Amino acid sequence: MAMSRLSITITAPIALISALAIGLTVFLNVGKLDRTLGELEDSRLRFTINVLRQNLETGLDLGLPVRSLGNAQAAMELEARQDPDIVALIVKDDKGRAAFSTGRPAQSDSIVLSTPLSNNLGVTVGAIELHYSRRSHDRFIAGISRQLLLAGLLATVLSTLLAVLGTQLWVRRIGRTLGSIEHTLDASAPPVARPDRHAVALAEQAAGSAGRALRDLEQARRAITSKDVAGEKL
Fold first, then answer.
1. CA-CA distance, 173 to 193, in Å (whole number)?
2. pLDDT (tens digit, 9 = 90+) per residue, 187-232?
3. Edge-first strand listing for the sheet containing 124-132
4. Where residue 123 falls among pLDDT bands split at 50, 70, 90?
5. Which of 61, 182, 206, 207 falls between 20 and 30 A from 164, CA-CA?
6. Residue 39 burial by CB count (10 A; 0-12/13-18/19+): exposed, middle or buried?
7. What 3-state DSSP class applies to 105?
8. Residues pairing with 92 in the sheet
9. How do 86-92 and 124-132 pair as beta strands?
């Protein structure tokens, strides 16, 4: 079924608006998901580094220097094993030198969180650095984006097909109505396969009213003409 120019004129803006709306929805949802996951990861990492800090500060409160904390290496390796996206954990002394580390080199594109180490006197004697990779996060967001994009394309195609079908039916209905009215008013016009009965009734009513109006007008004209002729005879 070929599309008429009217159908294309009506369908094209609908398809464009649908595509823009779906694309904007996908973009906003991906951005919201990215922000939410980022906030959750930041909260989880801060919890991890704070638990490690509290563990190490227990030894510092006993008067031990940072480099004498015997449980530091084991605690760091335990946290690193629990989360494979932790690139490195580094404990530094008061001079900023690494006292303990998980042994994996820190990456330049990793997220870095740092918290100071203090003893029971409130003196800062070192710090803990946590280096975290966003690769898993980025891969997850990329996968979700692809899925949402495919779903958006499918929704756009379906909405466009529905718009085309609806427009075609609407245009055909209008053509059938106009054809029914035309054939009712002009018998020489081509008939319609399935005439619109309501439109035919309205056209017949309009034709009858027009016919009566013409007859009344003709009678009035004749009456006026007869009066004029009678007046001339007098």
1. 12
2. 777 777 777 777 777 777 877 777 788 887 878 777 777 765 555 5
3. 98-101, 86-92, 124-132, 111-118
4. confident
5. 182
6. exposed
7. coil
8. 98, 127
9. antiparallel
Closest listed residue to residue 181, CA positions, set 210, 165, 205: 205
Residue with tokens 């940072």: 66
Can you tell me the distance from the alpha carbon of 109 to that of 134, in angstroms, rounded to the nearest whole number? 8
CA 202/CA 150 separation, integer angstroms: 49
Q: What structural domains and CATH numbers belong to the chain? A: 5-139 (3.30.450.20)
Residue position matching structure tokens 């030198």:
97
Asked whether the whole model's pTM tops 0.70, one would answer: no
Is the pLDDT assigned to residue 3 strictly greater than 60? no
How do strand 86-92 and strand 98-101 relate by DSSP bridges?
antiparallel
Tokens of 41: 């990861």
How far, in Å, are 122, 184, 207 from residue 203 at the CA level? Answer: 96, 6, 6
Amino acid (1-letter code) at residue 43: S
Take residue 128 and report the two structure tokens written for it: 């803990």
Burial of 7 (0-12, 13-18, 19+ CB in 10 A): buried
